[in-house]
Amino acid sequence: MDAVEVVQDRKRGLVAVPMARQEAGNLRVRAARGDVDRAGKVLQERHVGHGAQNAVQAPGRQSGGRDGQAASLAQARQHGCRHHASVRVQAEKIARSGDGTVTVTVASGDTVTADDILVAVGRRPVTDGVNLEAAGVELTDHGFIKVDEYLHTGAEGVWAAGDAAGTPQFTHASYDDDYRVLKTNLTAGNGGGKPRSTKGRLIPYSVFTTPELGRVGLSEQQARDAGHNIRIAKMPVTAIPRARTIGHLEGTWKAVIDRETNRILGAALLGAEASEAIAVVQMAMLAGLEYTTVRDAIVTHPTIAEGLTLLFTPAYLEE
Q1: Per DSSP, what are the bridge partners of residue 216?
Q2: Residues carrying an active site annotation
Q3: Is the CB of residue 177 less than 8 Å from the CB of residue 201?
């Protein structure tokens, strides 16, 4: 089985991955962070599971920074992936040998050999040369359109929405919610009701890898940084009856709870159908429900969402 190595370059967005032979089937690879996130997720979807060996991660991007990333990394380790954190990985040289393999030399002097290279340059708003300033529309240092919480620019009668306005780069954020905000506020401007704000939006996301990752709200570190006194619930997917019936036991579920209010602050679900289960957590958070309400709910058996009634039990929730 081919060795697999991933190299991340924050400046150039470089990932080097030995592609498995076609007959080897799917091969999972730990998704690289930063500008290569989206490309890394594609790689993880297509290339995880059969012999991944090394993942190299740049300084400042340690896996503990976000619960979802930590969960994905833990899953990759179960498939034999060795993780090297805080490694300087700026690519200095790239060379292809006669047999077609590629060798990348990084700033530390280490080399990584791969069958192919994926270059992910990231995303930036296409606002250059439009001369928006002439219309009174200001841009941020990164080229995004400056808007307030109502998506209004600094120019009278000019609004902006979606990726170019700095909205989280998810279809459900720009197409679903930004659209509603704009529609409501344009109507409100004509005496059609109260304006709608983007402030405090609870936007989940899912990564459709195998297994899936669902995230919403605060991570453990974010909750601590915000001053919350928290409790952590953490459970292996093997505890969920539905996971057993479908034979997909990989993954871990984690939730962050405010110790004083018993409300759920965030969750990272790594496992089968996590993209569906995370919506249940989101609804509970939007309603301001205490975790005990979710724990004691009567949920259809056997479903993946039923796992939430287990996650918040004393067996998996710290004191």
Answers
A1: 267
A2: 301
A3: yes
Tally of CB atoms within 10 A around 264:
26
- Average pLDDT on 33-61 reads 44
Exposed, middle or buried: residue 48 (CB in 10 Å: 0-12, 13-18, 19+)? Answer: buried
DSSP class of residue 251 equals -
What single-letter DSSP state applies at residue 103?
Answer: E
Cβ burial, residue 53 (10 Å; 0-12/13-18/19+): middle
β-partners of residue 116 are: 17
- The rounded distance, in Å, linking the Cα atoms of 221 and 240 is 26
143 in Cβ contact with 127 (< 8 Å): yes
Given the DSSP bridges, would you call strands 54-56 and 82-84 parallel, antiparallel or unpaired? Answer: parallel
Q: Is the pLDDT of residue 55 over 70?
A: no
* Rounded distance between C-alpha atoms, residue 63 and residue 213, angstroms: 15
Q: Both tokens of residue 300?
A: 């259809």
110: Cβ contacts below 8 Å, ≥ 6 apart: 87
User: Which residues fall within 8 angstroms of residue 21, CB to CB, at 6 or more apart?
Assistant: 2
Determine if the pTM surpasses 0.90: no
Structure tokens at 81: 């992936």
Write down the pLDDT at residue 109: 83
Q: Are 146 and 135 in contact (CB under 8 A)?
A: no
- What is the torsion angle, in degrees rounded to the nearest 10, for the CA atoms of residue 302, residue 204, residue 266 and residue 165? 180
Structure tokens at 163: 């990726």
Q: What is the pLDDT of residue 104?
A: 84
Work out the pLDDT band at 92, boundaries 50, 70, 90.
confident
Q: Are 58 and 72 in contact (CB under 8 A)?
A: no
- Rounded to an integer, what distance in angstroms lies between the CA atom of residue 177 and that of residue 167? 10
For the stretch 258-275, pLDDT in tens is 999 999 999 999 999 999
Task: Please tell me the distance from the alpha carbon of residue 38 to that of residue 51, in angstroms, as a whole number.
Answer: 22
Per-residue exposure over 165-177, b if at least 16 CB sit within 10 Å of its own CB, e if not: bbbeeeeebbeeb
